[in-house]
């Protein structure tokens, strides 16, 4: 319950008080279902139609990157849960820098990455989720993050040397690999839309029209 509140609290606080929605009752039923197999997790609840208007609004939001100060769309980077935006370029650099920390520092964070404004700059946001990084980073940058997490997990597994640790390592590596593959598909789809669908092209030679808007 505590984790659910932590994840859904910020999203719920941005919904206007008394906002009518036919999806509210459905969401409440899904969150309070007695059977664990059908009860929504906090992460799945954020994908419920009730939150769709909020998510769409966030995608259109433009904020100044907390590192380089350039205007950044939500879908071209990520936001910490304190609302600080980080553009894709700065996020790649920040995650790489965090991955270069010594083993002790990586273990303290469990290989996770905090907001660039964390620590002495005062941001108390929780670490970025793997999904946040997969969608906010470049393919190469996220691949580097996956390698660092993999090395950390492998080191801990060698030290524990037990079957359970080996199973956890394999499960985590498979989960991160799936996220990396999904992120590559998203980038490929975006590139196809930008290169093939949006430009106006001659149907015969496929060259863009010179006077296309």
Characterization of this structure:
The chain is mostly helical and 213 residues long. The protein contains 9 helices and 4 strands. It has helices at 2-13, 24-31, 42-45, 52-59, 88-99, 103-109, 130-136, 139-160, 163-197, and strands at 62-64, 71-73, 77-79, 85-87. Strands 1-2 form a two-stranded antiparallel ribbon. Strand 1 (62-64) and strand 2 form a beta hairpin. The longest helix has 35 residues, at 163-197.
Give me the count of strands: 4
Percent of residues in beta strands: 5-15%
Q: Write down the Rg.
A: 20 Å
Looking across the biggest beta sheet, what order are the strands in? 1-2
Distance linking N and C termini: 52 Å
Average pLDDT level: 76
Based on CA inertia axes, which overall geometry fits? globular
Helix content: 40-55%
Largest beta-sheet details: 2 strands, antiparallel
Low-confidence segments, given as residue ranges, are 1-7
Task: Please specify the SSE layout and strand pairing.
Layout: H1 2-13, H2 24-31, H3 42-45, H4 52-59, E1 62-64, E2 71-73, E3 77-79, E4 85-87, H5 88-99, H6 103-109, H7 130-136, H8 139-160, H9 163-197
Antiparallel strand pairs: 1-2, 3-4
Helix pairs in contact: 5-8, 7-9, 8-9
Q: TL;DR of this structure?
A:
This protein is mainly alpha-helical and 213 residues long. The chain has helices at 2-13, 24-31, 42-45, 52-59, 88-99, 103-109, 130-136, 139-160, 163-197, and strands spanning 62-64, 71-73, 77-79, 85-87.
């Amino acid at each position: 319950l505590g984790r659910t509140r932590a994840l859904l609290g910020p999203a719920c606080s941005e919904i206007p008080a008394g906002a009518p929605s036919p999806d509210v009752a459905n969401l409440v039923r899904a969150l309070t279902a007695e059977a664990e197999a059908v009860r929504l997790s906090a992460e799945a609840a954020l994908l419920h139609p009730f939150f769709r208007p909020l998510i769409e609004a966030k995608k259109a939001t433009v904020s100044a990157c907390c590192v380089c100060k350039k205007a950044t769309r939500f879908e071209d980077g990520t936001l910490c849960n304190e609302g600080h935006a980080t553009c894709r370029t700065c996020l790649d650099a920040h995650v790489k820098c965090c991955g270069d920390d010594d083993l002790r520092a990586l273990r303290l964070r469990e290989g996770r990455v905090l907001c660039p404004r964390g620590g002495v700059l005062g941001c108390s946001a929780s670490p970025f989720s793997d999904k946040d990084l997969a969608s906010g980073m470049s393919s190469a940058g996220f691949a580097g993050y996956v390698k660092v997490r993999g090395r950390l997990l492998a080191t801990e597994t060698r030290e524990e040397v037990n079957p359970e640790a080996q199973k956890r390592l394999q499960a985590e590596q498979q989960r991160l690999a799936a996220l990396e593959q999904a992120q590559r598909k998203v980038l490929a789809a975006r590139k196809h839309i930008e290169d093939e669908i949006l430009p106006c092209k001659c149907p015969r030679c496929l060259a863009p029209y010179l006077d296309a808007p």
